[in-house]
Amino acid sequence: MSRKRSHDQNFKNLILDYPRQALAFFAPAESGGIDATARITPLRQEQLKERLGERFRELDVPLLVEWPDGRREALLFVLEEESDPGRFSIHRLVHYCTDLAELFDTHRVVPVVIFLRSDQSIASRLRLGGERHCYLDFNYLACHLKRIPWLEHRDSDNLVARLNLPNMQWNDSEKIDVYARAIQGLLALEQNIEKRLKYIDFVDIYTSLDDNQRKIYQSRYPQEGNAMATLTERLLDEGAQQGSQAMLQKLLTLRFGPLDSTTLQRLRSAHGEELDHWAENLLEAQSLEEVFSRH
């Protein structure tokens, strides 16, 4: 999977797992009207593919918001993650929005574009017309993550905001604290073990601590480190009987961050006692190398 596709899937999972929090963070100007009675439904992308043809892109995450009292029409949010601003096309976004409006018979369409990196050349508005009149005036909500000071959301009770602290604006000296606040938010706001594991990986990917920074983190934030170790042990107990390659891969990622291709290949080619041995080593190992070298 390319890094671009990886970004797409990461943000798609985040939005689909936490749609209300995603709307509140990425589209605060529109999310205020979405109360507890509103139903948020992800739209099947296969349903859209026939209408969008070659313009269909997997990274688009359309959500249908409906109110049961009938006082409002359906509201469509289109959340699109673009990791490369140079590839963003406002013309494509116009096509997508008009196709969605026609397909679901609504005039209420809110396009939201999430940018991992900012670029002053990104088009924010499209106006089409002649000498005397403008016949199309289109704009969208833009969330430029790198322009958001992380301190504004360091204590947020919105899990999507906390998980995105590493994608916000911070200085190199703040990197470990950014990581810690994101992990603290995850441990406090998400009780599901599998989702904790899933989004620890999200935070790891976008913070990308090196070995030295990870040691400083464990020293500076021992309580969070112990909580992660406890989570590791619990998951290890659940997966010990299976000797699962997938489970061990998750545990290694949890402790040491994203795995390189050599380590992944080593896991895929291992079986039985070897996997069990590495799993036992994981409880006391201080580095990825120790997992495989301890006897």
What would you say about this model in short?
This protein has 295 residues and is α/β, with parallel strands linked by helices. Helices cover 51% and strands 14% of the residues.
Structural commentary:
The protein has 295 residues and is an alpha/beta fold. The chain folds into 3 domains: 3-146, no CATH class; 148-217; 221-295, no CATH class. The protein is built from 14 helices and 7 strands. The protein has helices at 3-17, 19-26, 28-31, 45-52, 90-103, 159-163, 175-189, 193-207, 211-220, 222-239, 245-256, 261-268, 272-282, 288-293, and strands spanning 39-42, 60-66, 75-82, 109-115, 125-129, 134-139, 141-144. The protein has a 5-stranded mixed β-sheet with strand order 1-2-3-4-7, with helices on both faces. A hairpin with a 4-residue loop joins strand 5 and strand 6. The longest helix is centred in the last third of the chain and has 18 residues, at 222-239. The protein is elongated, with a radius of gyration of 22 Å. The protein starts with a helix and ends with a helix.
What is the count of structural domains? Answer: 3
In terms of quaternary structure, the protein is: single chain
Query: What is the CA-based Rg, rounded?
Result: 22 Å
Query: What is the terminal separation in angstroms?
Result: 34 Å
**Helix/sheet category:** alpha/beta
Reported for the largest beta sheet, the result is:
5 strands, mixed
**Overall mean pLDDT score?**
81
Strand content: 5-15%
The sequence of SSEs as H and E is HHHEHEEHEEEEHHHHHHHHH
Number-wise, the strands total 7
Number of distinct helices: 14
In which range does the helix fraction lie? 40-55%
The stretches of 5 or more residues where confidence is low (pLDDT under 50) are 1-5, 46-59
